[in-house]
Specification:
By secondary structure, this protein is an alpha/beta fold. The protein folds into 2 domains: 10-143 and 283-331, 3-Layer(aba) Sandwich (Rossmann fold); 148-280 and 337-348, 3-Layer(aba) Sandwich (Rossmann fold), CATH 3.40.50.460. 39% of the residues lie in helices and 13% in strands. It is built from 12 helices and 10 strands. The strands form 3 sheets. It has a 4-stranded mixed sheet with strand order 3-4-9-10, with helices on both faces. It has a 4-stranded parallel sheet with strand order 6-7-5-8, with helices on both faces. The chain has a two-stranded antiparallel sheet with strand order 1-2. α5 links the parallel β3 (101-105) and β4 (125-129). The chain binds 6-O-phosphono-beta-D-fructofuranose. 6-O-phosphono-beta-D-fructofuranose binds next to loops. 6-O-phosphono-beta-D-fructofuranose is lined by residues 5, 69, 106, 131-133, 175-177, 228, 250, 252-253, 281.
């Protein structure tokens, strides 16, 4: 199953898992809409075969078997408890006599799979990390991150011509939830002047000074990349809770880009914002995500075949590894730090990244 927000690269995992399961003599079912498909009274699934898992899957964004971000919170809102949900999932797994379950998901899915495994340690589950945000801890990269970077870099390059022609400050708002990886990595790869991320505090006066510097030094335009969850003195994001539970709910961030434009205009310069939104989750799958997705898909099946389950697959130091889901839960998310090589590079390049 693919669970949580979609991204490019999911289909590469599905295809590789299909080929590997077939080679080992299993059948592969794709549960539709993540856990919802398995937990339904009549489980909804797609039987994966040579026709629907052909090579075009390598480059096609989205998920052939669909994904879901709202089932968990809406089921809780309807009055079900986490235990009820665990029972529903367990029943689906038992009724279908599954040999194992590959859950491709992000931090939210990892939390749920961890809950599910408590008391049900016999379930053979492997979690594969995916998220454009790249905020799943322990793995260097998650599926979808590199394709998102390609999209953001291309978009910044496309607005640079307008920035130059009109001598404007272009603010590009990118996704990433509470982590600034997309903004930082894409900002560096596209030559941005200012990169604002949730991890580092910034001084709006220094932002304005940097903007003015770009114009005083004859460059006459400026590119600002900002992560969606960044806040400002007069701009805060509201948290949403579902029955008091935050970790399964889905917080939507929007508006900081436009707010920054209003602040930057106080310098007297022209400024515009573009918000890239869900374009970052689509696009032709990058080579990195095709390769990583293929490696993950094969290894997830290998782990289930070996009975080496209850694991999160990770890619670390150029090696495929796995760690216990329960250990992965100690620090589910990762964030940018001042020791990140890209942060160091940004500072060395003179990019304003906040007060660090
Ligand atoms: O976690 C992936 C992500 O794209 C975040 O970057 C973003 O905040 C969120 O999902 C958007 O979710 P939705 O598709 O529900 O609006």
């Amino acid at each position: 199953m693919t669970s949580g927000g979609d991204c490019s690269g999911l289909n590469s995992i599905i295809r590789a898992a299909f080929i590997r399961t077939k080679g080992l003599g299993y059948e592969l079912f794709g549960f539709k809409h993540g856990l919802r498909g398995l937990a339904s009274k009549n489980p909804e699934y797609v039987v994966l075969d040579d026709k629907n898992c052909d090579e075009s899957m390598l480059s096609t964004a989205g998920s052939l078997i669909c994904s879901d971000t709202v089932w968990m919170s809406s089921t809780i809102e309807s009055g079900k408890t986490i235990d009820d949900i665990k029972k529903m999932i367990y029943k689906g797994y038992e009724d279908l006599s599954l040999s194992g379950l590959i859950c491709v998901g992000g931090d939210g899915s990892l939390c749920l799979i961890n809950e599910l495994l408590i008391g049900n340690e016999e379930l053979k589950i492997v979690v594969v990390p995916k998220t454009i945000d790249n905020d799943v801890n322990n793995t260097d990269f998650s599926i979808g991150f590199y394709t998102a970077l390609e999209i953001v870099v291309e978009a910044i390059e496309n607005v640079r011509s307008t920035a130059k022609s009109h001598e404007r400050v272009m603010v590009v708002e990118v996704m990433g939830r509470d982590a600034g990886f997309i903004a930082m990595y894409a900002g560096i790869a596209s030559g941005a002047d200012i990169i604002l991320v949730p991890e580092f505090e910034y001084d709006i006066e220094k932002v304005k000074q940097k903007v003015m510097h770009c114009f005083k030094n004859g460059k006459n335009y400026c590119i600002v990349v900002v992560s969606e969850s960044v806040e400002a003195k007069d701009f805060k994001h509201d948290e949403e809770f579902v029955n008091g539970v935050m970790k399964y709910s889905h917080l939507t961030y929007k508006g900081i880009g436009q707010h920054l434009v209003s602040l930057i205009k106080e310098t007297g310069l022209e400024s515009r914002c573009i918000t890239l939104g869900h374009t970052q989750r689509g696009g032709r799958t990058s080579i990195n995500d095709r390769l990583l997705g293929t490696l993950f898909g094969i290894e997830a099946v290998n782990l289930i075949d070996r009975g080496d389950c209850g694991k999160l697959l990770i890619f670390s130091g150029n090696r495929l590894k796995s760690i216990n889901v329960v250990d992965a839960m100690r620090d589910v998310n990762k964030f940018l730090t001042i020791d990140d090589e890209c942060v160091k590079a940004a500072k060395a390049l003179g990019v304003y990244v906040g007060e660090v």
